[in-house]
Amino acid sequence: MSMAIADTIRSEWTKFRTIPSNIPTILTAVALMVGLGAATANGAAKGYLAASETGRAVFDPTYISMYGGFLFAQITVGALGVLVVTHEYATGLIRTSVTVVPRRGRLLAAKVATFGLIALLMGLVAGFGAYFLGQRVIGAAGAPTASLGQPGVLRAVVGMGLIWALVGLVGVAVGGLLRATMSATTVVVAINFIIPVITPRLLPDAVGDWVTTYWPISAGLQITTTVQLPDRMLPWAGFGVMAAFTAALLLAAFALFRSRDT
Asked: Is 90 exceeded by the pLDDT of residue 261?
C-alpha cells in the first residue's frame, strides 16, 4: 500500500470517528443484533420442540441465532455506509476532500476500504456474539445447538461479518450515487429489507420465490446457513451474487464520482 493511499485511509478513519454519533451507532447495531438474535433464538427453540420431524430436520441453530437480529442491525449498517459519503456533501466538506485528494478514485476507494473494514470487524463481533449467546438460549430451551467444530458453522459465523461488510458498502455506493442522505438511506432500506422481507408476501408465488432465492441480500445470507434447503442457492454461490451486486453499485459510484462536479 502506498503512503498516499495509507494517508487517505487514515484521514477517512479520522472523519468517521470524529462524528460523535458514528461509534455509538455501530455499537448499538452490534448490541441490537445480539439481543434480538437471542430473543429470536428463544422463540425458534420453543417452536422446534413442537415441530414435526420435517420441521426439525431444517432447524438451523447457527442461522437462527444471528438472522433475527441482523434483520434490523443491517438497516443501521447500511445507513452508516450512506453517511460516510453524504455527510461530506451535506456539510460541504467534499470540496475540501477533493482539493486535498484530487484523485477522486483514490478518495472513494479510501472510503470503501475504511468503512468496509469497520463493518467487517463489527460484523464479526456481532456474529460471534449472537452465535454464542444464541446457542446458550437454544440449549436452555431444550433444542439442539451447534458447535464451531461442526461442518459449516465457523463459515456461517464468519460469513455474517462478510455480509455486514457488503451491506455497508452498498450504503457507501448508493450514498455516492444519490449524494442525499434521506433518499439514499430509503433506497438502501428498500434493497436490503423491504424488497427481500416484505414484498415476497405481496407478489405472486413464482415471483416471490425468485426474490427470496436470488435477490442479492437473500442469496448472500445463504453463507450464514448450515442447513442447505433444496430451493436455495449454495452458500458461496449466494455470497457471490451479493458480492457481484455490491461491486456493480460501487463501480457505478466510482464512475459517477469521477465525472461530475462536487
From this structure: no
| pLDDT given for residue 44 in this prediction | 95
pTM over 0.90: yes
Contacts of 125 (CB under 8 A, 6+ apart): 30
